[in-house]
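pasting for the record
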Amino acid sequence: MKIADFGWSVHAPSSRRVTLCGTLDYLPPEMIEGREHDKQVDIWSLGVLLFEFLVGYPPFEAEGNTATYRRISRVDLQFPPFVSEGARDLISRLLVKNPADRMDLGEVPNHPWISHYVQTQENEDNNDENEGNKENEG
């Protein structure tokens, strides 16, 4: 599955930006604090999106924009008890204040929490194919 939103996309030869744009809940600390930013903002957004898919609301949601900005800037990340340790670990590696310390996008598919579910799905797909072949044999 691939997800893309080009609504605020910009071609920047230097790959460095200083403008603030986007959905508040998905903005990383460097954008909120007015610092230069690059493609690492997408890693942050992936962490926010993953949290929201699992929990049903954004990780830094608060009453009012100022409180939300504060929670993002502090990386005030609080997980509900039902979020597994594996999911917490992955999200916590994506939602890191220092962009240079965030997990590299290429590492995400190899994270144990992701690998577990990809492997499980592959096994289910293979079982479905085997069942279909047995039916065709009979």
